[in-house]
Amino acid sequence: MRMSQSFIPTMRQDPGEAEVVSHRLMLRTGMIRKVAAGIYSYLPLGLRAIRKVENIIREEMNRAGAQEVLLPVLSPAELWQETGRWDFYGKELFRIRDRHERDFCLGPTHEEVITDLFRREVRSYRQLPLTMYQIQTKFRDEIRPRFGLMRGREFIMKDAYSFDQDETGAKHSYQGMYDAYCRIFTRTGLKFRPVEADTGLIGGISSHEFMVLANTGEELIVYDPSSQYAANVERAHLGPAESATPETHDMLEKVSTPNATSVEDVCTLLKVPLTRLVKTLLYQTGKKDITAILIRGDHQANEIKIQRFLGIHELNLATPDLVSQFTSAPLGFVGPIGLSNIRVLADYAVAAMDNFIVGGNEPDTHYLNANLNRDFRIDGSGDFRQAQAGDPSPITGNPMETARGIEVGHVFMLGTKYSEQMGATFLDAQGHSLPAIMGCYGIGVGRTVASAVEQNHDEKGICWPIPIAPFQIHIVTVSTSEQTQKVADQLYLDCCSQGLEVLMDDRNERGGVKFNDADLLGMPYQIVIGDKGLARNALEIKDRKSGQKTDVPLSQACQWIHDKINENS
Ligand code: ATP
Ligand code: MG
Q1: Is the CATH number 3.40.190.10 carried by domain 47-68+107-237+402-453?
Q2: Across all residues in the chain, what is the average pLDDT?
Q3: N vs C: which end of the chain shows fewer Cβ within 10 Å?
Q4: Ligand 1 pocket by C-beta < 6 Å: which residues?
């Protein structure tokens, strides 16, 4: 494509609204433009990168035996009511009503629609296994759309669904998609890691997230440097902790802690580390029912784990009003000693502590040297917190480390949740009717492109990995002489006819401007054509990422790059 005729609206200045580098660079390079919060137009360069990712996904899905379909964006409320997700999905679901007052939603994901297709069309085990996928625009009214394509309200997703007749088959399908995901993210040139994940809103029995490692990632993962183990901090399994060498139980002592409502305030006032304190979190677990969860001062409660332990779907901190019906202590001073009519559960780490500090259950007081069983009783203990750096690996017991990640893909083993709810059954070889065992598998296409920018840039701009670069070559002419123009035109045509993708800067701009733009846009190879080089019959080829420059004879330039690209992609 010739730049003089292309629509690449670059920006000289950094856009103020962009908080992360990928968002900033995608705006500056004219790849995307915002239409409304979380809603973007893809301009030519952005769309080319997106299509490259889609093509890699499509090739690997097809190779894994999945078949491409395209389901509608609009789906009728009835399907979502059958699974209960019309209510359960809450405000994230975009809902609309047609002229006949019928309710629809804009698909945020497609389990309902595909399961409906299956139950209408598939009858026999002979038609299984079956995996279908689509690449389509999804809609989610995210509470905090941000970071450009990372978290949009309208975004492109590849979603796939597998149907199997038994557990073994389902595991095989899951593994097939897992392997395809590894190939896809390897081919896009991303540094990524599959991690054990939580099954969240969609529900299911086993799941992995594919995380691109990046400091700006919204997800936190723990990993064991001495094994393959990695998990989302929300998911990482933490077993019962061992008690430190049994200490003597010191005398319980009530101390005054005026206005110290936060864990930090109390610890500063009493000059003790956060690890000595136990927080008492009160959650509403029924209409008039609350449950106290005890968590060590430096630990974070994990509401998903607590919900799972209690077998409930929703968990909110109790309102001050409700709290006042159980204790006279204001929030911040609640503790387990003397609490009655409340179920008290301790995180495993708390269950192993001695002589700790807890709220005094009256204003401005705390207790020192509280001890379980002596001073109060608990109704059970469990894994109620997020993992953090230093926690033992479930594989080796060694301390784990943490890293930030961007979730680009997600694979779920769904089991029979949807097929049972919606009656998606088939007849097995003996003529028994059984629910199909399902899996579902998503990749955020735009988020993958944004993650690639996040991982591949420097202070001058993007350094595209070859497989997803909008163009492979950027030709820069630094002279307006007739000879330079002629050589550039010829090289452009030669490269294009060899199937190479070339952006040619034929604009009437100064060399400096063109070089800056070439570095900003970040195509993997820059070819510089100027009078000096041509006098020697040579061109300068610059590798954008390493900055390395090579003089290549004019007649070999096209082939040289062709070979390089084949080597590196
Ligand atoms: P998140 O926790 O980031 O909200 P999710 O668990 O809701 O993600 P899935 O339902 O598993 O996401 O969707 C599959 C994939 O779609 C995700 O792995 C991610 O790459 C992408 N994705 C999800 N939500 C968005 C969004 N709002 N904008 C862009 N991509 C998204
Ligand atoms: Mg989400």
Answers
A1: no
A2: 93
A3: C
A4: 109, 140, 142, 151-152, 155, 157, 200, 407-410, 442, 444, 446-447
